[in-house]
């Protein structure tokens, strides 16, 4: 071993450098996607605030309240449940390595969803790899969901978040994740599906270009290895940074259909809406996941945009239609029958 071995560069992803001795160097800022501060005042129809859930681990959420919520409560008295707003729990992307709930692209998206969908968005900020390898992001996100349950069960005004208690319909919650956040949303759903989260109920799961991997190369990985958003090299680097030491890409944290992954049949899951691009390097893995869910008896709605890669813009009308279907069917998991 050379004398320089301890400082040998293992890899780099979007400016994040990991060295052989475990040292991690991060950029001090991201000019392309800067962080955005919360604003408790309504701006363009949405107010935002940050709530710290765990000071030691620095787990926090950003809550987005649409201005339409003011119509649901004319006083401090809680409005009828029919007037309250659905709650979307959002997990941001970034390959488990970069970005946060405050990153401008996610802040803008959450503001848009809150305003156009008429929902309260709770965007989760979780610990990043390689400083905190998986399952840190999964555990932090599950912790945030349990915090939301505690808010649903809290009857003490001084101990509850007023935005959620006054305006949120805890019986109509949805998990949504983008890219690595999609992987988080699925893992959180399967992890807590045997738990009792009442009075909170999750009605549906929304995965947008979910970030999955595996040891064997797929056809789409080879054909679209140089995708503008996610190259195959960057995908491999992200998993090298985020998986437990010595784990392969067939680890169940990475491959939901891998040899050690739990059988999907044992989970009582709500309907899924999965949005993918036909030119995404991960397309074949995403389609295999869709088919596995269907074969295990799950309700899966697929939106596939043929000419898009690992970035798929989609009309908010699709989210509205899916959420309304889930709410009208009153499908529930995590808390028993409705």
Brief account:
It is built from 8 helices and 11 strands.
Please describe the topology of this protein:
Elements: E1 9-13, E2 16-19, E3 24-25, E4 46-54, E5 59-66, E6 85-91, H1 104-117, E7 120-125, H2 136-153, H3 162-167, E8 168-178, H4 180-192, E9 202-208, H5 219-223, H6 232-242, E10 272-277, H7 283-295, E11 300-305, H8 316-329
Helix pairs in contact: 2-4
Q: Poorly predicted ranges (pLDDT <50, ≥5 residues)?
A: 331-338
By helix and strand content, what is the structural category?
Answer: alpha/beta
What is the helix content? 25-40%
- Distance between the ends: 63 Å
Secondary-structure element series? EEEEEEHEHHEHEHHEHEH
Mean pLDDT: 91
Task: Describe the fold and architecture.
The protein has helices at 104-117, 136-153, 162-167, 180-192, 219-223, 232-242, 283-295, 316-329, and strands at residues 9-13, 16-19, 24-25, 46-54, 59-66, 85-91, 120-125, 168-178, 202-208, 272-277, 300-305. The chain is α/β, with parallel strands linked by helices and 338 residues long. The radius of gyration is 20 Å and the shape is globular. Mean pLDDT is 91; it is low at 331-338.
Give the key terms.
about 350 residues; globular; 11 strands; single chain; 3-stranded antiparallel beta sheet; 8 helices; alpha/beta; 8-stranded mixed beta sheet; disordered C terminus
